[in-house]
Amino acid sequence: MIVYNVTVNVDEAIAHEWVAWMKGQFLPALAKMGGYESHRLLHLQDEIAESNGQTFAMQINLKGVEALLAFQGGAEKEFFQLMNVKYRGKYAAFATTLKEI
């Protein structure tokens, strides 16, 4: 299994709206994708006092490398495009790919 992890720090002012968007729109749409197994949306609990915003991790479990490549060619691009349209300048994100051992 491949785990695609996106860590996102969002401005405090939009954190609630962003979580609602993720849970209500993006993640349900993602679940319809081929090769998808499951997902989790997590909230970082040990925030640094000086940091701005709230940090979340979206973890998507995919069936294998082929599903990852399909995701990266479609849903990943869509995710970041939608994020830029809705929340440009109000978030910072990075992605990592992990393999279950």
From TrEMBL:
A Pfam family that the UniProt record links to this protein? DUF4286
Highest taxon, organism lineage = Bacteria
**Name of this chain's protein:** DUF4286 domain-containing protein
The organism of origin for this protein: Algivirga pacifica
